[in-house]
Amino acid sequence: MTDTVVTAAAPAPLQSAFRKTKWSVIWLLTLTIFSALTVGGLMAPIQEAVKIDLGLSDFQLAMIVGSATAIPAAILSLPIAWLVDHHTRTRLLIILASFWAIGTIGTAFAQDFYGLFAAKLVSGIGAATAFPVLVSILADVCMPERRGRSMLLISIGAWAGVAAAFAIGGTLFGWLEANPTAFIANMPPWREAHLLVGIAAAILVLPLFLIREPARHEVEQANPPLREALKAFWRRRAFLGWLYVGNFAGGFAEGAAALWLGSVLVRQYGQSPGEFGGWVGLVILGSGILGSIIGGFTADISQKLKIRGAILLPALIATALSIPASAYPIMPNVTLFAWVLFALLLGGVIINLVNSAAIAVLLPNEERATSLAALAIIGKIVGGPVTAAVIAGMTMLFKGPMGLGVTLTWLGVVTGFISLAGYWLAMRYAPRPVAATAPETAPAEAV
């Protein structure tokens, strides 16, 4: 069936009309982001084994875990965001989920740096660009004042996926290493882990066919051309610019933890993936659940405060509290490492959820995907190649057994203060919530 998009806006319920939250859709979106983040972070706990097996250098490893996912985000996020605002989002989500499943399976059969890089690129096309699609769908299946709490589940799913990447990756790797003939004989454990997780991700694509395309709400201009969308984006440059500064700077510490957490535990604390995979997964999952609950409820509660940009206040506070937690990689033992890492990740979860909720509440429907795509581009580029390059340069200054940990700490503290200033200024320039200013219209869309 061919999609038909009618540019004329159709009347829809008034803003005060009750819109029933479609929890079944939200749960399926949660399952989808869980799958995306699991495959996206699967290599993190076992990258040292991949490096040894394929004979990779640190630079090549950084390219694979950083640039291979950042490149699709940088090139495709904005075009995909345009498709989100103009075409059927549910079909787009199915395509993207298929990419990350295929790429993960392909990783299991890569024979050298180039094959591994290509497989991670394919996986990144889906996993690195799907978030704006998810948020766009979610925003249309619940009322604005409930979006923080609805995003709570999406955020828990995302962080559960990150936790599962460490727990499954590390634990499965350790088990396969101890039982080399359990599945495929003579296949290295890291390859088997990617193959099994990739097959599971492919199976999880199937439930997406059950989601029906929701009607669009809070539309200021139905199906605007790209030129008009960019103009609207430019009009909000003061708010979005400082929001992106906060996200840009804050992304360094989070990106560094994602890229180098496993290496720090192996090099500085003498732990193997089988030893740290389980407890790191619990730390990530615990911080993800608690941070999502705090972020979701505080995002909704803060909207009631009589200050400009109040929805961003939880992100501002969480950023301030995260700065001292950047010292996690220089803790004297693994126990303190785990607790301080928990505090850092807790702040990051709150910040990321509030960022997305702020865009979903303060911007009209047709601008959300583009704004979220820009946020994703910044996060992926900063958390990938930029962080890798900065850390590679800084480790030349901080040498010795704790050199990597000292580098990560300094990077987190300095960028934390920059992020704090960004969020404070974003609050000052924040627009009024779109539900209070925009007429409720929804373009007709054939599904």
UniProtKB/TrEMBL annotation:
Name the source organism. Answer: Brevundimonas lenta
Q: Kindly provide the name given to this protein in its UniProt entry.
A: Putative MFS family arabinose efflux permease
Please give the superkingdom of this protein's source.
Answer: Bacteria
Task: Indicate the transmembrane segments per the record.
Answer: 25-47, 59-84, 91-110, 116-139, 151-173, 193-211, 239-261, 276-299, 311-330, 336-363, 375-398, 404-426
Record-annotated Major facilitator superfamily (MFS) profile domain positions: 24-434
Q: In the UniProt record, which is one GO cellular component term? A: membrane
InterPro entries from the xrefs? Answer: MFS, MFS_dom, MFS_spinster-like, MFS_trans_sf
Lineage at the top is: Bacteria, Pseudomonadati, Pseudomonadota, Alphaproteobacteria, Caulobacterales
Q: Which Pfam families match?
A: MFS_1
GO MF terms here are: transmembrane transporter activity
Q: Which Gene3D superfamilies does UniProt cross-reference here? A: MFS general substrate transporter like domains
The record's subcellular locations are: Membrane
This protein's membrane topology, according to the annotation, is: Multi-pass membrane protein
Q: Which UniProt keywords apply?
A: Membrane, Transmembrane, Transmembrane helix, Transport
